[in-house]
């Protein structure tokens, strides 16, 4: 069968593995987006810019404070999460009662401003970020050379995604969050501080994006447009998975990473568009997405 | 009737009266710098090119020549339709007389058509595709700095002679990438090497892992990067992550700029061989200009594309002041071809009948970290290619302007 496809099986497995690794970035970013949309009803177009800020934060920490990658993995999401909370308190909270489109416009504007500021200061070529020595190098798996860092990325992403899904779907805190989105007035009547929960949720979604940014810093250049390149694909992933579904966005993220990887083997020129073709087909057949519920 | 005739006659006389003085359309010589201001090529040209054009206008000292010069700019976003729309608006409504820079070859081809239609001047510095002075040449094009033929022959020949006899290309999937791949493949085959394959990736790709995997699987001795800007940076960075060089293959960065190397860092980029048309540390006038540029550009040193904008705009203004008119683009370009070029950066040279500017090219090697004595001291000259050998012979380009 493989001879028919014209690709040796080793090359195919290598590409599948690469696709899985890319899929983990899509999964983490779309998870943050799905959390923010599912629980806050905000279409967060600033997600890509916040991912970029996470990578830059990691660079700042290394450059000016000498804090290594491992410290950045914890501090950058917290730092960018705080920035996200400030933005939410100042700007976003006024839009919760309005149509989705206002949130989209505002966050899109935020993204443009943030990217413009960074590009003004740092140029568009980007900054180098050294890979942590514990994760550099790789091992030859026979069918491909797997860098250790990429294996680490998959493991961490799967862990974080599953943890997040567990907290939201299976714990008491998660149940409060889900209840607060469905009926904030009733939940507030029970004495739960709904605005604070919403703020923390936005901060958490932003922290997920920043975490993905720190993961990306050693392998992609830390540049101001790294987020805008990724955000459109991530949106397609969330739409395909279903806008409110957490598990949907995780599974779709990985699946689409694999599909994109396969496209790159057979017809690389189309690798940019494969995901959007799938999105168009899914929207035609099941408009709420593969795992989504009607809102 | 008699009054109307008198009115008409006096209008005609008034118009003729101005013909004796210099005719600058709109009273100003307006130069539009069109570049990628916000995406992967923004550091190669971008706001730096606008600054270079402004410095050229200032150094030309327009007032001394009885001229007024104005520089405007726009972002073509690497899209040909946006580029040609901006060009049309500039020519039809804003009185722009010449367009400068335009990296991204697909946009340059589109803009060249508009420039020819409106009979203005196109001072190309950032775009690479050699067809601009070949099959797609026009009487309004002047192609400064570099092109894909120069890169292919400079870098390709050197690497094949070093033993790089089998190649696999990572190509940016648009006009520039295809041209650079085709020109380099021709050089490789002419020198006895072979091309084992190519992976074409979309412009502005951030993840090259699957393409690098294909390159590794091909077992080619050399992986030729027929891309530029952010794409080249990511390819090189990820190639080192996948152990390409440790595995025995080498990278050929067919088009790489000073800002790309600065962004990669010498640790990752050292040893890369590439061809350039200009480097700030080549001679004293270039060093002096680069320092002035950096002081006005946030400490960032100029790339060869930005230097080309400076030189091209300077030569354009010389031609316009000699002609005392900027209205007829073809006439200005003919004057630019008649006058020998002489500027502090590229030295003395000429512009050929097909619009190609001739100046020497340099084979460079990126320095090791310990060899560098400054933040922007990043490369050393390995070989100088004289001007008459650096560019494609005029009769091989297929340019309709070239007789015989």
Distance between the termini of chain A: 43 Å
Number of helices of chain A: 12
- Secondary-structure-based class of chain B equals alpha/beta
Task: Name the shape of chain A in a single word.
Answer: globular
N-C termini distance of chain B: 57 Å
Helical proportion of chain B, percent range: 40-55%
Order of helices and strands of chain A: HHHHHEEHHHHHHH
How would you classify the quaternary structure? heterodimer
Helical element count of chain B?
Answer: 14
Mean pLDDT of chain B: 90
Determine the CATH topology of the largest domain in chain B.
Rossmann fold
Summing up helix and strand content along with how strands pair, one would put the structural category of chain A as: mainly alpha
Strand content of chain A: under 5%
DSSP strand tally of chain B: 15
If you had to describe this structure to a student in words, what would you say it looks like?
The complex is a heterodimer of chains A (295) and B (404). Chain A has 295 residues and is mainly alpha-helical. Chain A has a domain at 20-131 and 170-224. Chain A has helices spanning 2-5, 9-40, 47-65, 69-90, 100-122, 148-170, 172-182, 184-189, 194-216, 226-241, 246-266, 274-285; strands at residues 138-140, 145-147. Chain A has a two-stranded antiparallel ribbon. The longest helix of chain A is centred in the first third of the chain and has 32 residues, at 9-40. The model of chain A has no long low-confidence stretch (mean pLDDT 86). Chain B has 404 residues and is an alpha/beta fold. Chain B folds into two domains: 26-146 and 282-359, Response regulator (Rossmann fold); 149-276 and 361-390, Response regulator (Rossmann fold), CATH 3.40.50.2300. Chain B has helices at residues 2-19, 46-60, 80-92, 105-118, 148-161, 175-190, 209-218, 230-241, 258-264, 266-269, 284-296, 304-323, 329-338, 387-390, and strands spanning 29-35, 69-75, 98-101, 121-124, 141-143, 166-172, 194-201, 222-226, 250-253, 273-276, 341-343, 347-351, 357-358, 361-366, 379-385. In chain B, the strands form four sheets. Chain B has a five-stranded parallel β-sheet, with helices on both faces. Chain B has a four-stranded parallel β-sheet with strand order 7-6-8-9, sandwiched between helices. In chain B, strands 10-14-15 form a three-stranded antiparallel β-sheet. In chain B, helix 3 (80-92) packs parallel to helix 4 and helix 12 (304-323) packs across helix 13 (329-338). Residues 16-20 of chain B have low confidence and may be disordered. At the A-B interface, helix 2, helix 10 and helix 11 of A face strand 7, helix 7, helix 8 and helix 9 of B.
């Amino acid at each position: 069968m493989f001879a028919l496809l014209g690709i040796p099986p080793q090359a195919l497995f290598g590409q599948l593995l690469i696709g899985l690794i890319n899929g983990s970035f899509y999964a983490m970013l779309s998870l943050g987006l799905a959390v923010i949309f599912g629980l806050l009803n905000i279409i967060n177009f600033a997600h890509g810019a916040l991912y970029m800020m996470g990578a830059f934060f990691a660079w700042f920490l290394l450059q000016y404070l000498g804090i290594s990658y491992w410290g950045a993995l914890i501090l950058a999401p917290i730092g960018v999460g705080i920035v996200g909370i400030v933005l939410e308190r100042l700007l976003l909270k006024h839009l919760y009662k309005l149509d989705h489109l206002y949130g989209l416009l505002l966050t899109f504007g935020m993204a443009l401003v943030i990217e413009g500021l960074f590009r003004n200061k740092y140029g568009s070529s980007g900054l180098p970020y050294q890979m942590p020595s514990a994760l550099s190098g790789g091992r030859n798996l026979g069918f491909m050379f797997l860098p250790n860092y990429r294996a680490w990325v998959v493991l961490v992403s799967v862990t974080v995604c599953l943890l997040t899904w567990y907290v939201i779907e299976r714990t008491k805190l998660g149940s409060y969050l889900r209840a607060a989105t469905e009926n904030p007035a009733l939940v507030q009547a029970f004495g739960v501080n709904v605005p604070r929960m919403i703020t923390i949720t936005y901060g958490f979604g932003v922290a997920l994006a920043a975490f993905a940014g720190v993961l990306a810093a050693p392998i992609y250049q830390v540049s101001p447009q790294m987020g805008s390149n990724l955000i459109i694909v991530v949106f397609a992933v969330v739409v395909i998975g279903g806008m409110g579904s957490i598990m949907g966005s995780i599974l779709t993220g990985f699946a689409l990473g694999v599909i994109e990887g396969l496209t790159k083997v057979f017809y690389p020129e189309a690798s940019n568009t494969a995901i959007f073709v799938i999105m168009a087909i899914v929207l035609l057949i099941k408009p709420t997405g593969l795992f989504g519920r009607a809102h | 009737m008699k009054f109307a005739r008198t009115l008409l006659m006096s209008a005609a006389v008034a118009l003729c009266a101005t013909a004796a003085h210099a005719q600058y359309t709109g009273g100003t010589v307006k130069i539009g710098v069109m570049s990628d201001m916000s995406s992967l090529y923004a550091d190669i040209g971008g706001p730096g090119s606008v600054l270079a054009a402004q410095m050229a206008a200032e150094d030309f000292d327009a007032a001394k020549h009885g001229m007024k010069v104005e520089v405007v700019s726009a972002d073509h976003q690497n899209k040909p339709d946006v580029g040609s729309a901006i060009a049309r608006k500039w020519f039809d409504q804003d009185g722009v007389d010449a367009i400068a820079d335009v990296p991204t070859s697909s946009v340059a081809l589109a803009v060249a058509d508009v420039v020819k239609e409106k009979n203005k001047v196109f001072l190309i510095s950032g775009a690479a595709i050699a067809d601009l002075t070949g099959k797609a040449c026009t009487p309004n094009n002047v192609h400064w700095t570099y092109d894909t033929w120069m890169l292919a022959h400079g870098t390709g020949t050197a690497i094949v002679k070093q033993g790089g006899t089998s190649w696999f290309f990572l190509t940016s999937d648009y006009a520039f990438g295809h041209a650079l791949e085709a020109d380099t493949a021709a050089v490789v085959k002419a020198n006895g090497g072979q091309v084992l394959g190519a992976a074409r990736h979309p412009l502005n790709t951030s993840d090259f892992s699957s393409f690098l995997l294909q390159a590794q699987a091909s077992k080619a001795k050399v992986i030729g990067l027929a891309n530029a800007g952010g794409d080249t940076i990511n390819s090189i960075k990820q190639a080192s992550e996948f152990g390409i060089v440790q595995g025995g293959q080498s990278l050929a960065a067919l088009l790489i700029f000073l800002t790309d190397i600065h962004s990669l860092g010498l640790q990752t980029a050292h040893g890369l061989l590439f061809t350039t048309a200009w480097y700030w540390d080549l001679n004293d006038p270039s060093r002096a200009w680069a320092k002035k540029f950096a002081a006005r550009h946030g400490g960032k040193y100029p790339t060869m594309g930005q230097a080309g904008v400076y030189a091209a705009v300077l030569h354009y203004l010389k031609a316009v002041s000699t002609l005392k008119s900027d209205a007829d683009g073809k006439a200005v370009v003919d004057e630019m071809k008649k006058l020998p070029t002489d500027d502090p950066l590229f030295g003395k040279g000429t512009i050929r009948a097909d619009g190609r500017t001739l100046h020497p090219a340099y084979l460079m090697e990126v320095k090791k970290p310990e060899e560098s004595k400054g933040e922007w001291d990043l490369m050393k000259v390995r070989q100088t290619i004289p001007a008459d050998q650096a560019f494609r012979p005029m009769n091989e380009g297929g340019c309709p302007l070239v007789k015989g």
